[in-house]
Amino acid sequence: MAKEITPRSTDYAQWYQDIVKKANLAENSAVRGCMVIKPYGFAIWEKIHDQLDRMFKETGHVNAYFPLFIPKSFLSREAQHVDGFAKECAVVTHHRLMNAPDGSGVIVDPTSKLEEELIIRPTSETIIWNTYRDWIKSYRDLPLLINQWANVVRWEMRTRLFLRTTEFLWQEGHTAHATKGEAVEETLRMLNVYAEFAENYMAMPVIKGVKTANERFAGAVDTYCIEALMQDGKALQAGTSHFLGQNFAKAFDVKFLTEDNNQEFVWATSWGVSTRLIGGLIMTHSDDEGLVLPPNLAPIQVVIIPIPKPSPEIDEVVHKIMKNLKAKGITVQYDQDMKNRPGFKFAEHEMKGIPVRLALGQRDLEKNEIEVARRDTKEKFTASLDGIDETVAQLLLDIQENLFQRAKSFRSQKTTKVDTFDDFKALVDSDIPGFISAHWDGSSETEIAIKEITKATIRCIPFVQEEEEGTCIYSGKPSNKRVLFAKSY
Amino acid sequence: MAKEITPRSTDYAQWYQDIVKKANLAENSAVRGCMVIKPYGFAIWEKIHDQLDRMFKETGHVNAYFPLFIPKSFLSREAQHVDGFAKECAVVTHHRLMNAPDGSGVIVDPTSKLEEELIIRPTSETIIWNTYRDWIKSYRDLPLLINQWANVVRWEMRTRLFLRTTEFLWQEGHTAHATKGEAVEETLRMLNVYAEFAENYMAMPVIKGVKTANERFAGAVDTYCIEALMQDGKALQAGTSHFLGQNFAKAFDVKFLTEDNNQEFVWATSWGVSTRLIGGLIMTHSDDEGLVLPPNLAPIQVVIIPIPKPSPEIDEVVHKIMKNLKAKGITVQYDQDMKNRPGFKFAEHEMKGIPVRLALGQRDLEKNEIEVARRDTKEKFTASLDGIDETVAQLLLDIQENLFQRAKSFRSQKTTKVDTFDDFKALVDSDIPGFISAHWDGSSETEIAIKEITKATIRCIPFVQEEEEGTCIYSGKPSNKRVLFAKSY
Asked: Is the pTM of this model over 0.95?
């Protein structure tokens, strides 16, 4: 089974596809660019959903649901937004089918043409701000801290499972505030929630920063992001949080009565992460044997395999172990399948990235022992059956931490300061380019020129860095800090 | 506040709309027939979702996600299905917008016309069975027990918040089995899950039964349903579970290798409930003062109001009560708002249907007492502060049970055996017609004739009833059991 995976060193893109397929995460559907998220892949999304939802609620947010459809004219209301989103999208033009007169099947009923076409939401700022106009009258109605879990559609030309699909699942937070300061604070609060989630749950280290004007969300004043480095040295934008200023309030005429009796436009934020995170999870931790999942997001954290097959003695001990693990909140599965041999099962569970494997045979029982294998390092050791639940609980913590440290150390190794454009180009063209920290003159022209020549883009202007005088690698103009370049997904 | 609600006796439909609006559950959106589910309404849907999801998982199901879009041709594959669903639906014909040459906004790019139109899923049997073809090869791949939480679109001409909207949220289970017996068993298992959920969580009594051929799901061999009676004497179909036979397997060529090495078509079921349940919840329990929620689905179960406003002494006791209630898994809110008076708050929380209200003032503190009010009966009593958490926990159980018994007793009162068509017509035309139990000759012609004359339909042939010889109320032909008629939503 494992040998069907293309090694990462041979073809990283193919390896990625193999993992998604062999670990049963997702597949392409009959509809171009849309994926089917299979049960195991969806179980990971459920873990992501549940944890993020908890974090949103802890920070005072509530969920709501807005329509799938957006009237075409709404997209034109906000000048920048229309350029960014009124492009590749699914357009509903009719609302009825009818039997073909020649009996050949069904056809679109031409009399059912809509007066105004509807767009499947590519993002919901417009329909939501059109709704907020009625919800916000006074400062007493603010802040409005609302999140939505939904599907969205962006008609992508080149798609890749999880990373870029025509339809994807996401959450989009849309908040409304009385002051600029509060809105900026919210934008950063949610960026920090994303960073905390990425690092503590996905075990994926991220750089927090702000996007350049060029890479900003269409309609935002500022776009903040978390950027992660994948094993192939490309960056993944893992989440964005936008300070929208009063742009959407102005476009949809959302004003409120201030405490001192003035009418003012409302301040806005929006922020989102999507099923793309599953792509990031795969490309941060997995290896040539299959998926590697951090325990905090693994649908199954521990699998127990009877050697060579179930028996009443083994079953009895296994059920005791399972009971103790479950009491600790650990999800565990007992693989009682009779058709396959242990070796096959080992490979299968490695493929699925289950963090800890326990194997128990008759001889182990006699010695009061059990074999423990960890997926991240593939190390095996023998542990006493006494307190095995404690051993496993501690091991899960160790694996979570090890995955994070391993990814962080990879990122340090693959983050390079570069001071000349020749070095820059050489690095971008190398096998695993990574993050490139370089001086930039701050102009969009330079940014675009560098992108055209090298395909590398400015991923962000990191929050944390030293001020440092230097000269732009491309234009030679003065610069006072470095920005982070990379090729990206 | 409360007086803005139209009394039920004046205009039930208007009362319903008032409740949905005043309790902040949902509202119509800018898109015809599509609703915005507001945070409080969505919180109820989250409770419904979470509980049903647990019950699905306990019965062995997993979640997955299939595309929003269905190629038009898929709908024609199953002969009955196409008649039922290839009618009023949203049709995507293009995938790009462009700036209008005259600068007037955006228009559909005519060059982006799709080769084959895509339908927004009205239900997902077709796209799912097209996918299952690749997933099911042998009996070892069966059963497949998959559920999806999703939005669906049916282009309705007349819509009503929650009860009938163009877009709605639902879950749809789609299972695949090796034998007919297993599939039938699954169909009934899920019907029972729905009934258990309706009765134990929604406190809404339901009748389980089978639909007539006429009311069957398009593509099903048999449709089972749970039917509930609303306060205005109309029935609400609250959930359906379909035995699909081999219809979709044949339409999408899904065969499997049996244990004895034959190729056979797979057996199927599908089952679903939707945001419509929230409409049922409202129309089962609520009154002229607002929403009434069963404790098991109330986002906030208990609200505490300081009389007349917060004070350090009151706050201290309230926080202790809250801590104890939370430890019992009870959700509680402390209304510390300083702007509104207790009377206003009382009305507001009644409107929202919070099951239990506690009110605590300085004089209560001195007497070591607290005022307890239950939303269902509007009774108030004074309880000791000692063990108030126990008192409240017990009261929540009582309210849950009382709501169920009250609805059940209403249903018994409003279920009438009728033996002549004149009595039938008179009853259907009365104020609160209710369920009408009558003999029917089993023919579609009779069923349709009765519907045309009276607008009443056969809600189901109940599972539980005595065999009884009689004659059809309409045709006078012999019949051996009664069926349940009603006007319905």
From this structure: yes
